[in-house]
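Margin note from the TA: students keep mixing up input and output lines. Inputs are the sequences; the output is the structure of the whole complex. Example:
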Amino acid sequence: MSLYYTQKLLFQLNRDPSVRRRLEEDIEGLLVEYELTEEERRAIRAPDVGLLYVMGVNGQILMHYAALRGYEWSAYIEAMREGERKYGPVRTGLYARADVR
Amino acid sequence: MSLVFAGVCSHAPGITGRSERADPTVRDAFYAALDRMRQAIEATRPEVLLVIGAEHFANFFMNNMPAICVGMAEHYEGPIEDEAWLGIKRRRVPGAPQLSRELIQAVMEDIDLAYAEEWKFDHGIMVPLHFLTPRYDLPVIPVNINCQGPPLIPLKRCYEFGRALRRACEVRPERIAVIGTGGISHWPATPDSGRINERWDRDFLERLLANRREDLLSYRDDEVWRAAGQGGFEIRTFIAVAGATEGCTGELWFYAPIPIFAVGCTVAVMKLAQG
C-alpha cells in the first residue's frame, strides 16, 4: 500500500496549497503523516522523479509534482528515462506490463 | 430531441501549455478546427454544455474512485494546474445544478452514478473550454469517466451510459450540447510521451464515426494498452458520445499527430440530424 500513500501525498500536493506550504516549511513533518518506506521518503524529498516513476507513480500525478519542484517539460521526460536506466523497469502500476489485465 | 450538438475533441495539456513548441502549420490548422467546432456549437444555441472527460487525479483518487461521476455544482473552478504550465488563467465556470440533478436522477434509472457538488477542472475540461467557450459564459455539466485508475468501467457500460444520457436529455426542454474529450492512442506523462499510433487512431475514428457499436466495444484493455498506451483507455469518453448518438454517424474535421502535444489531435462531430 506504500505506493498508494506516495501517490496520495503527491495528489494532495497538486490540489491543496496548504499542503504545498507544508512541503516548503516542514517537509519531514509532512512525510511522517504518510505510510512511506525510506526509499519513498527519499524519492519525494530529493526529488528523484525517475525513481518515483519507476516505483509506479502515475504520470498524471507525477508531472505536476515535477513541475512544482522546478522541472520543465523536457527535463521531466529525461528524468523518467534516467530513472529507468538507473533503477530498471517500472515496478508496478499502470506502466508496468504485468499489471495490465 | 434536446441534444442539439455532439462531438469529440482532444484535451492534452500541451495543446495550450506547449503551443509554441509545435509545428505552427499543423497547430494552427488544429486550432482552426477547434474554432470551427466552437462556431458549430454556438450555432445550435445550447443552454448547457455537457463535457464527458477523463479526469486525471485532480478531484478523484483511489480512496474513493467513481467509475462515472457527474457534476452538480453551482460553479466550478479551473484549471487546478499551474496557470503558466497550462497556459490558461484560473477562472470560475458556471454550472447548471438543477438540470444536473434531474439528469443524474434520470440516468440512474439505467446506470449507477456518483455526483459531486465540488469539482476543480483540470486540463481535461479546461483545454476544450478554452477553445469552445472562450468567454466561459455557457453553463457546463462535467462528467468524469475513470480512465486512469484500474479497475476501469467496461466499454459497453460507457456506451450504455451514453444511451442513458441521451434518453435523459430527450425529455428535457433545454437545448443541450455534449462533447467527449480524450486522447486516442497516447502515452502521456511518460518517457514515451509524443509516441502516437496514427494507424490505430484512424481505425478507431472510423469505427466511431460510423458508430458501429460492436466494433467499438470489441477492444480489450490489454490490447489497447499495447497498441495505444495507457492513454488509450480514454476512448471511453468517445464511446460514451457514440452511445449518446446511437444511430448517427459522424464527420472527422481534423486529425493529425502533434508529438509535442503528446496526442493525435482530433476534432469530430456527430451528425445528429440523422437520428
